[in-house]
Amino acid sequence: MKANAETKKEFVIPGDYIGVAEEYLPGEGAYEENGKIYATLVGNLDLDMSRRSASVISKTNVLPQIKEGDIVYGEIVSVKPQMVYVDLLALEGHADKKLSANTKARIYVSQTDKKYVKTISTEFRNGDVVRARVVDTQGDSIRLSTAEDSLGVIRAVCGVCRKTLENKDGNSEGNLECSYCGAKETRKTANDYMKAKL
Fold first, then answer.
1. Confidence (pTM)
2. What average pLDDT does the structure give for the chain?
3. pLDDT per residue over 20-47, tens digit each?
4. Cα angle: 28, vertex 30, 32; to 5 degrees
5. Residue 26's closest CA among 1, 5, 47?
6. CB–CB of 143/86 below 8 Å?
7. Across-strand partners of 72?
8. Measured distance CA(26)–CA(42) in Å, rounded
9. What is the pLDDT of residues 123-143, one digit of tens each?
10. How sure is the predictor about 156, in pLDDT bands with cuts at 50, 70 and 90?
11. Cβ partners under 8 Å of residue 34, min gap 6
């Protein structure tokens, strides 16, 4: 019998809160700490109500190499006046695998959008998850670009309360709002903001 066999799937990164221990058991790619369950892998969340398990789906363990033209996913870790620093999390097509070698990257203000961007802090904030194209792999840090409609922030966190921001209007202008505290912020969003699947 498949009563309560509802399965919820969404993109998660390591450290993401994915459930409570009272409701789920941590499965593959998840762990419990103080009654809460967190993801340990980049991948798609699998909340299986029939088994009461919270897992992150991972497929293989081969380490992918990043090259120019690749699409990558990363988390914004520092915002400077002319650039942001990104910790790379996954390579598109290999989201279930850890990255090898260099996982530090930068996005310069000139590579943020097709339109002129005066201040990069209006486009990205710490904790945002971005999808970007690799434009240069030389040197000590990989350079990225989000100057395409399909690239940019795919999940943003509120600068006030750290909850996930929503695109309530469904527009492509990057105007986001926090349904928890009501804060309104802007980002350079990808055209599938909060709908991205790896």
1. 0.69
2. 85
3. 999 999 887 788 889 999 887 778 888 8
4. 130
5. 47
6. no
7. 91, 132
8. 15
9. 999 999 999 999 998 877 899
10. very high
11. none
CA distance 193 to 166: 9
115 burial (CB, 10 Å; 0-12 / 13-18 / 19+) is: exposed
Where are the strands (E) in 58-122, listed by range? 71-79, 83-91, 104-108
Structure tokens at 118: 């005066």
- The dihedral built from the CA positions of residue 170, 178, 30 and 154, taken in this order, carries a sign that is positive
Two tokens, residue 142:
């990989």
Distance CA 89, CA 73 (A): 6
Q: What CA–CA distance (Å, rounded) separates 76 from 158?
A: 13
Task: Return the bridge partners of 166, or none.
Answer: 177
